[in-house]
């Protein structure tokens, strides 16, 4: 109450003061007036110019150093590929391919590759090049006794020309193996399989067997979506309980409808791009990529097998 009375007395006293008297009362408590520099700041165009030029010089130096690094790296990889191509050329002889991999402790039982039909190469010439690449890789796998090869091409051009793909691969196998050609099976999801151009009733060749699976983008994430819808509908209709849906069930359904998990995935492009490859099947797959490579080559295939043989598979609990 005392403080409120004093405040009221002070306010009554101040209200009686004029404006000039209030200013004089507060003047001792105000800071001293210092003369301010009212002159406008001079512009410094020369300093600004040199600052901009210094930034441009630093950017140019960084760009030049990075460009030199990229050029030297590409030249090194090209030289390395040429050396490997000379030292380890297969000469279309399966015996030489076996000799190149005889020191490996293990080889993949299921190999998969990603190939690309580029937009500028679409047409007859582009398709012929793609078929030749598939045929070459198939012959290398047959020579290395890899029983399963899956080829992923995003647009589905290989799946649309299944018989033509079979003829190209069979012709390439004849060029490599002569009369002792391994039996060849070509298949695609939801498409009838062919064994040496006929149905699967014939017995496989004594020279070995090679199964080739052709994949496209529609066999990837869309398969997971369709499976999810199917399981959801079955659960709503009480045909399948939620407790029955497990990773083993999903893995079994996808493996049956598309393919099993591959052991090794080889990328022949200059960048690591999966291009919509079926994601479920490559959870534990070893992926090999050769930097700055831009084409299918035997040296890349051979280095991938050597890298796979030295890889350590560590699985969590």
Ordered list of secondary-structure elements with their pairings:
Layout: H1 2-15, H2 19-26, H3 45-87, H4 94-101, E1 110-115, H5 124-143, E2 148-153, H6 157-160, H7 162-177, E3 183-188, E4 191-195, E5 209-215, H8 221-236, H9 247-257, E6 264-267, E7 286-289, H10 298-310
Parallel strand pairs: 1-2, 1-6, 2-5, 3-5, 6-7
Antiparallel strand pairs: 3-4
Overall description:
The chain has a 7-stranded mixed beta sheet. About 2% of the residues have low confidence. The chain is of the alpha/beta class and 317 residues long. It has 10 helices and 7 strands. The N and C termini lie far apart (75 Å).
Order of H and E elements: HHHHEHEHHEEEHHEEH
Radius of gyration: 36 Å
Shape: elongated
Largest sheet: 7 strands, mixed
**Extended strand count:** 7
- State the distance separating the first and last CA atoms: 75 Å
Please state roughly what percent of the residues sit in beta strands, choosing from under 5%, 5-15%, 15-25%, 25-35%, 35-45% or over 45%.
5-15%
Low-confidence stretches: 197-203
- Number of helical segments with 4 or more residues: 10
Structural class category: alpha/beta
Strand order of the largest sheet: 4-3-5-2-1-6-7
Q: How helical, in percent, are the residues? A: 40-55%
On the 0 to 100 scale, the average pLDDT is 83
């Amino acid at each position: 109450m005392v403080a409120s009375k004093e405040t009221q007395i002070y306010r009554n006293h101040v209200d009686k003061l004029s404006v000039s008297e209030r200013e004089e009362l507060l003047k001792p408590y105000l800071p001293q007036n210092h003369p301010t520099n009212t002159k406008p700041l001079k512009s410094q165009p020369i300093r600004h110019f040199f600052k901009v030029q210094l930034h441009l010089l630093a950017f140019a130096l960084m760009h030049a150093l990075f460009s030199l690094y990229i050029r030297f790296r590409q030249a090194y990889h090209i030289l390395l590929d040429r050396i490997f191509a000379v030292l380890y050329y297969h000469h279309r002889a399966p015996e030489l391919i076996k000799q190149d991999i005889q020191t490996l402790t293990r080889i993949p039982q299921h190999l998969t590759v990603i190939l690309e039909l580029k937009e500028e190469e679409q047409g007859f010439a582009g398709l012929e090049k793609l078929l030749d690449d598939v045929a070459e890789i198939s012959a290398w796998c047959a020579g290395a006794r890899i029983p399963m090869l899956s080829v992923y091409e995003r647009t589905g051009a290989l799946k649309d020309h299944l018989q033509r793909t079979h003829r190209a691969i069979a012709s390439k196998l004849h060029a490599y193996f002569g009369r002792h050609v391994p039996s060849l099976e070509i298949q695609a999801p939801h498409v009838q399989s062919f064994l040496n151009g006929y149905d699967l009733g014939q017995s496989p060749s004594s020279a070995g067997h090679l199964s080739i699976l052709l994949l496209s983008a529609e066999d990837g994430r869309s398969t997971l979506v369709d499976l999810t819808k199917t399981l959801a509908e079955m659960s709503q209709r009480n045909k399948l309980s939620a407790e029955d849906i497990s990773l083993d069930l999903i893995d079994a359904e996808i493996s049956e409808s598309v393919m099993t998990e591959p052991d090794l995935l080889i990328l022949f492009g200059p960048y690591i791009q999966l291009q919509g490859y079926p994601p479920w099947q490559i959870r534990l797959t070893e992926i090999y990529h050769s930097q700055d490579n831009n084409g299918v080559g035997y040296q890349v295939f051979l280095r991938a097998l050597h890298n796979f043989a030295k890889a350590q598979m560590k699985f969590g609990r």
